[in-house]
Amino acid sequence: MNDVLNKTLVLVLNRHWQAIDVKTPLETFSMLVTGAATALDMKAGEEMRPVTWEEWLTLPVREGDYSIGTVRGAVRVPTVIVLARFDKVPKRRPKFCAKAIWERDGGVCQYTGRKLRPSEGNIDHVVPRSRGGKTTWENCVLADKKVNSKKGNRLPEEIGLRLLRPPKTPREVPTTALIRNHHRVQDWELFLGAPNPPGTGNSD
Fold first, then answer.
1. Which of 137, 146, 168, 176 is the most buried (most CB within 10 A)?
2. Percentage of residues in the chain having pLDDT higher than 70
């Protein structure tokens, strides 16, 4: 049960039904109990509807649903919740990691300009760590493994390499763009990348 409680299984929508965050069931249940959010009861081929915590406790656990055991019996884990009052789409920078550098650099070696397959590239410190280089957005780039190996602990100019462009910290983007459906929750796909999320009734 603890494993389920701490997985990011729940997509959070603002009150305009725009995806803005992900939560664990443990965090979600606290929000539902306090009325900060309602859960979406989503049924295949039927219209979804917001449900209060009191009603949610009465809903059956369906085949394939995550659930947790309570003194009242099993309680279904919602896949999507809607915030009661929050209406913005926050902005945030991507978390610094190798995958984010791949995305920032478009999968292109920053020394050769060649598009790389996942097996062909790794992260290079422009100024090597052995020479005081930091592990930061401004000092890390995607590079062809062969080029990186050849470069070793030298500066690019010392072996005739030139960066396509100076590496920079990515700008802030809407949090919707940063959400990843790691657990492949089918219900999330209705809201991720949709220009007009279901339920908004807006066309602009």
1. 176
2. 92
Q: Which single residue is written with the structure tokens 């650099």?
A: 105
CA 104 to the chain's CA centroid: 15
Exposure string for 140-168, b = 16+ CB within 10 A, e = fewer? bbbbbeebbeebeeeebeeeebeeeeebe
Residue 20: CA atoms inside 13 Å, Cβ hemisphere, count? 15
Domain count for the chain: 2
In a domain, 203, yes or no: no
pTM: 0.67
Residues 157-172: tens digit of each pLDDT: 999 999 999 999 998 8
Residue 197 lies inside a defined structural domain of this protein:
no
Instruction: Residue count of the chain, please give it.
Output: 204
On whether residue 204 sits in a domain, the answer given is no
Which CATH number do you get for residue 113? Answer: 1.10.30.50
Q: How many CA atoms lie within 13 A of 17 on its CB side?
A: 18
